[in-house]
Amino acid sequence: MDIARKLILCIVVDVKNLTVSSDPDFPVPENTEITFTCEAEGGIPAPNITWEIPGASTQPEPTVSDTSSQISLTLTKDMNNQELLCTAQQRERTLRESIKLNVKYKPTVDINMTPTEYYHGDEVNLTCSADGYPDPVITLRFEDKLFTHDTSDRNILRIGRVNQSQTRTYSCLAVNSEGNDTASKSLTLTPIKLC
Questions:
Q1: Is 145 contained in some domain?
Q2: Residue 69 three-state SS
Q3: Residue 57: which domain range?
Q4: Element (H or E) spanning 125, and its range?
Q5: Which one of 14, 55, 81, 94 has the fewest beta carbons within 10 angstroms of its own beta carbon?
Q6: What are the pLDDT digits (tens) for 171-187?
């Protein structure tokens, strides 16, 4: 009697490497659609590839092949400096690879004066701050003239012993490769109440 036996051989090959790339390369301007590819080198059976997208409440549907996955995202300024994570899961083995998002966006400016009420003879600090990528160049001005600073922090102007001649509008301009923004603040002396 002839007995035939079947032998089933299961071969497992671990994923060797995981890479994440983008097209186009970084940095990119805000609102640019970019395609990310996550590619696993090797792997039998093929790994399950997933994405984690920073700040996304819903995940876009990736295009998947045996050893790679692609997603397309429109990048916003809120995604700048975030990490996009790709994970390849194969049986008990997990590989992770990330890519840092570099999104260029125009600056937004904020200008503040302290204290909030100014009296004759007070010292007033005017602070200009800006958010943008690449980092914006900040200029403080009044009546189209640049300020001279008595401090190493170039975004703060200290106006000592305020008097009526210094009551005017001060402005702050922030500029980078993506655009510019301006904010203004008026310095008005509070009258002293006499009893």
A1: yes
A2: strand
A3: 17-101
A4: strand 124-133
A5: 55
A6: 888 899 999 999 998 87
> Tell me, what's the pLDDT at 150?
37
Please enumerate in sequence order all residues whose Cβ is within 8 A of that of 162, keeping only pairs 6 or more positions apart, or say none: 118, 119, 120, 121, 122, 123, 124, 187, 189
What tokens were used for 36? 């990310």
Contact predicate 86/20, CB 8 Å: yes
Task: Quote helix, strand, coil % in the chain, to nearest 5.
Answer: 5, 50, 45
pLDDT digits (tens, 9 = 90+) for 48-100: 899 998 776 666 677 777 788 999 999 999 999 999 999 998 888 899 999 99
Closest-CA residue to 72 (of 103, 35, 28, 17): 35
β-pairing verdict for 103-114 and 68-74: unpaired
* Of the residues 50, 73, 101, the one at which a domain ends: 101
Structural domain ending residue among the three candidates 101, 118, 140: 101
CA-to-CA dists, residue 182 to 35, 140, 165, 173, angstroms: 34, 10, 23, 5
125 with 85, same domain?
A: no
Residues 6+ apart with CB under 8 A from 33: 72, 73, 74, 75
pLDDT at 154: 57
Closest to 118 in 3D by CA, of 169, 190, 168, 193:
190
